[in-house]
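Do me a favour: review this protein, sequence plus structure tokens, and tell me how the chain folds. Record follows.
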Amino acid sequence: MGFHIVTSIRFDFDMFVKRANQDKGPRHNIYLISEFLHAKIHQPNNQSSNFINKALSLLAAQPEHWELASQLSEELTDDDVVYCVAEDIGLPLAILCKFKSKKPRLVMGVMAPSRKRTQYLIKSLGLGNIIQVFAVNAKNKADYLQTLLNLPQERVILIPEKTDEAFFNPAKGNIPKTRPLIASAGLEQRDYKTLAEAIHGEDINVKICAFSPNASAKTQVSMPEPVPDNMEIRYFEFTELRDLYRSADIVVVSLLENDYSAGLTVLMEAMACRRPVIMTKNVCLAEELVDNGLVIGTKPGDILGMRTAIQELLSNPEKASALAQKAYDYFLIHHTSEYYVNFMSDIMKEMVPDKASSKKNYSLR
């Protein structure tokens, strides 16, 4: 019996460990799980020239995912438990394992369950019988998958959002300020145009770390043109970003309308640094936190609503501090890296064959 974690892209985990040990960046959660469970991590090569893999990539994923899935489907047995972090590697492995006599127990992360190709492959190939647990990061995705595949609740789990509290944590910021500072970060589904218009004419500075590791040419983002004089948009190293959060009077996560669950990483980092957060209210964890009074929510594209929320927090520092503390206390219970590692490790340990009959219900819904 063995635990395995399969990633969609290659990570330099040695770099993450070295950087974290120097307090220059957060730890990698996948690596933390592997250390906790003594799990083997499998990563795709950067490319595959195999003709068959290229042909299969027309069905789903990339050639390198099929190459890795092919190797693993030959090596894994009934006694193995595998966590595929996303569907681009999980679907190829599930498809190939379907035709093997020895099938590992699969947990598959699903980022976009409403994608037509994902739905088609899972339903038409009966992959719901191969994948024991589907893992998603938002309640609407969990509900969608459970209904689509007619699955019992315990087979669709809601993974907690997380960030590394060993790196992102409260401390005094070092950015000099002569007026209030608003921080923001991220690139996917961001609406910085609305934020720029919300602070127009205000005696406020805004600093934005406009970066996302998953950004591509298809990434949707709305940028102000021109960028206001009191708004700085650039890349921040992790230590700079942490200092930005700590120095900010408010963290604003301004989003385009979406069901992608965008902005949650920044939300977690801001909560971990005990900063008050204003966030566009979309259908995801942010909506729940807004409804529970941990975050102030505004409607997508609502310039006046965002301006009013910013002015309210800046003019009421006691309210801003109380909001930040309440969110921070909640973060420490539900969203630390340690909580996430224990959560995912428990799920994988319950997948071990002799424990499968007593599997717990890990849904947080």
